[in-house]
Amino acid sequence: MKNVNTVVSTAMASLIVLGASGLASAAFAADKKDMEKCYGVAKAGKNDCKTLSNACAGHSTADNQKDAFIAVPAGTCERIVGGSMEAPADMK
After folding, report:
1. CA torsion angle for 74, 38, 44, 21 (degrees, to 10)?
2. Is the distance from CB of 39 to CB of 68 less than 8 angstroms?
3. Distance of alpha carbon 41 from alpha carbon 82, whole angstroms
4. Is the pLDDT of residue 24 over 80?
5. Cβ–Cβ under 8 Å, residues 80 and 60
6. Nearest partner of 39 among 85, 75, 74, judged by Cα
7. 24, 33, 85, 91: least surrounded by Cβ within 10 Å?
8. Integer Cα distance of 64 and 53 in angstroms
9. What's the CA gap between 24 and 2, in Å, rounded?
10. pLDDT tens digits for 30-79?
11. CB–CB of 72/24 below 8 Å?
């Protein structure tokens, strides 16, 4: 029983660390009905998924990169200056 508790404790600690560092899967968040992708507002290195120039989350090279998105609560993107719910034409 002690080993099971250790495994569960380790798993929970990993989830807390992932959530706290912002590395949780944005693809998961973007698939939820209460979230939407918002292009053009992510800070450099804070994007949630691939861009035209890279294939990983967290690798955007510039602030407000037009092909980088972050998942935001539904209805929020249209209220953010520079935010777009549409991917750039090059990315479609």
Report:
1. 30
2. yes
3. 6
4. no
5. no
6. 85
7. 33
8. 14
9. 28
10. 456 799 999 999 999 999 988 877 788 888 989 999 989 999 999 999 99
11. no
